[in-house]
Amino acid sequence: MSRFRLGLIINPLAGLGGSVALKGSDGVAELALAKGAVPKSHLRMQQTLQVILPYKDRIEVITASGDMGESLAREMGFKVRVVYHAPADTAAQDTQQVVAELLNETLDLLLFAGGDGTARDIFAIADDNIPVLGVPAGVKIHSGVYGITPHASGVVVKMLLEGELVSLMTADVMDIDEAAFRAGVVKAKRFGEMLVPAEPRYIQAVKMGGKETDELVLADIAAEAVELMEDELIIIGSGSTVAAVMEELGLDNTLLGVDLVQHQQLVASDLSADELLNLTENQSVKLFITLIGGQGHILGRGNQQLSPELVRRVGKHNIVILATKTKLKALEGRPLIVDSGDPELDKELTGYYKVVTGYHDYVMYQVANPDLVE
User: What pLDDT does residue 308 have?
Assistant: First the structure.
């Protein structure tokens, strides 16, 4: 039996800016590392490859040297062939050059770990006929070429290995202007399409753009959220739905960052993961968050400042989800998703939550365990 030829690319810099409140990694990786960011894209890819580890004798991994793929694949026991020798300090052009080399191979799938910038780099070079699949490792994941979680990406590869009938579809490659993004303005742009496995249970939808337009609904949600505030610290997550709470309080809000409030006053704004841990130590804390429209993620997309350690400190019972019924209905019954980077925490956060959808108005909605999406 011929081996499954798996092209593998890891962007070692993907997601670095998230935990240190830089809202992206494009062009700021050095600054993110200086602020104490820890590379995690290889860990995300490891979670994906773990799913297909039982099939390793049937797989040939074709990749770049070092942190761009070779090191992890060899450590996990896969048969590896290196087609590009990457420098110690990688950049976007290295991703593109790996793709160019992989075009000379007859791949069954190109698997990559990164964010929207990585997807753009791959799209710029990739052949329209090569199926690709992303492992979400970036701060911003607007593109539709990614699995909903690293585990879900692994499940899709497993389905291919087991010979299941997996259709292919084209999915949008999206990215935003990070300079505008850091200034609080979201400008999403479609760059094109790539071919991906058509498995809607595991492949994420493209993010719904735009702010909520129903101001009355948002005002009702905000009024209820303010009533829920007591004496504890309140972590205010990112997004326009949660921003309505800050507007209700008359406080400045970091639309695409994380703020801290107590006694209905702003304590600190646009906080990094470490800053949040320091300010909430030995404190009673609640977390107000919303979901990404069209995807359903409440953790792990655009809010990596909310580290697993912080979420455990808050506790499941102190997580308050705010969402309009329109956003929930748009999920068409799909559950909300947590992708914190800690699989054990993701399991702990499963279950049904009382979601604030208006003033004294709630719905029960399920948060899924990404590791049980099969």
Answer: 92
